[in-house]
Amino acid sequence: MRKSPASKTSTAKGQHRERQPSSPAPAAPGGLKILFVASECAPYAKVGGLGDVVAALPKALRKLGHDARIVMPLYASINREKYGIKFVKSACVHMGGREEQWIGVFEAVLDKQVPVWFVDCQRYFGRPGIYDEPWGEYDDNAFRYALLSKAALQICKDENFTPDVMHAHDWMTSLVPVFLKTWDRILSPLSNTASVLTIHNVGYQGKYHISAFPYIGIGWEYYAPDIFEDYGKINLLKAGLWFTDAITAVSPTYAREILEPLGGQGMAPYLNNRKADLVGILNGCDYEHWNPETDRMIAHKYSARDVRGKAACKADLQKRFGLQQREDWPVFGIVSRFADQKGFNLIKEALPRALNTMVMQVAVLGTGDSSTENFFHWLTAKYPGRVGSYIGFSTELSHVVEAGSDFFLMPSLYEPCGLNQMYSMKYGTLPIVRATGGLDDSVQNYNQSTGEGTGFKFLAPTGQALYDTIGWTVSTWFDRPHHIAKLRESAMAQEFSWEDSARKYVEVYERAIKKRRGTT
Ligand code: ADP
Ligand code: GLC
Which of 45, 75, 127, 364 would be 389's cystine partner, CB 3.0–4.6 Å? Predict the structure, then answer.
């Protein structure tokens, strides 16, 4: 079936000219060409930390002299005018079943540094949500992200951009490694391009009805238990793990956890098959966007040297969230997707008990599971002036909560990396975390005899353990304020540098390239 061009402004299709999309700085000699293919990238479209990472890592790579670029969908919610997103050309993407899908290719430059290509396709991305809407997940997500992944290859071809590496993220772009190894579009120019697949969260694998398989358009021999097949369905992440040249997970501890049956959530056997190619690299923190010294979204700027402005931020948070103006009461912040992964069962058990027995306030920002949304509506009504909630997504309020809170609650059942605990530390807001994944790697537990540490950790995944830890923080707040000051100072001094992480990714890219070119 032939589809008409996706954009009304489209001109001729697929001209083969050498185009440099408003690229601010070309790669240094010897630098790599790296193309990120992702479903989210802040600030254009973001649901969680994936969007933050896809925005920050290419910037860090460019600073190291590599030519990193991004391909992502042009969702209907993205404001083209605000971000200067311009039409480039239309392109034809060849999917399975001889289906030709016309797309519009648009471009912009992220943070004046990273060229971004957007895939415009009314059929798949012209809707209000990213993955879902309040009534549920889009049932054609396999088709939507198959198209995005294939479109990324087509854009490389049409734009004469031959990356050394294509870097895919989670199940949404797990088909990039698949297409790279199976694409035979007449002597593919990408036959030397390696692939790296980053696992941000193995809890989401892209399991879909087999009816999407013909659209992906590869042979039925790949519908095998080690590759696509998953109890009669298709599993996009599993296929990506089979085909990719290298795999990364977003923290060293998480890279170990996913090799175990519990942490691997069904993927452990396949990850163990690829263990030699799996590396854990801790995410960084983008201090261009998350820094109380320069943050324009908070009431008062402050720094580790002069932390006085934090009190004004706390007063602002209390005002905005309808909390009593009490400087002396500790405020516990939450900014989260409302998903089981984040430990809301523990919170539901521990918070009402803590509010009944301790002097504390809670400010919540989040959206997701309706049962958790209802819980916070109930909690806010039950403890007026002590609990405030905003059910929704607001980047501005996420900064307000980080800056104004004293403690940050993140009792995740599992956490591949977690960014909010890193933001919290920079804002002098002490994270309370369960010792799992990236939370364990990035937070040092409070030592009550020395006052050392950067937050509070507990291990047991129970409401009781969280309740006890909240009790520990509240008693520290009232009984050992000098320790709170010391913890805050240590937390604010932490440096989760994207530059270090980017260097580690470059090592992975180089190994993947060697593998792809058969030199290892
Ligand atoms: P995850 O990716 O699993 O959701 P992370 O801690 O890695 O967890 O990243 C979450 C990101 O999403 C952070 O940037 C956080 O501030 C943001 N975020 C989560 N929920 C909201 C919300 N309701 N409003 C604004 N930002 C949010
Ligand atoms: C995922 C994980 C989170 C991680 C983020 C960015 O959403 O749940 O822990 O920080 O990806 O890598």
Answer: 364
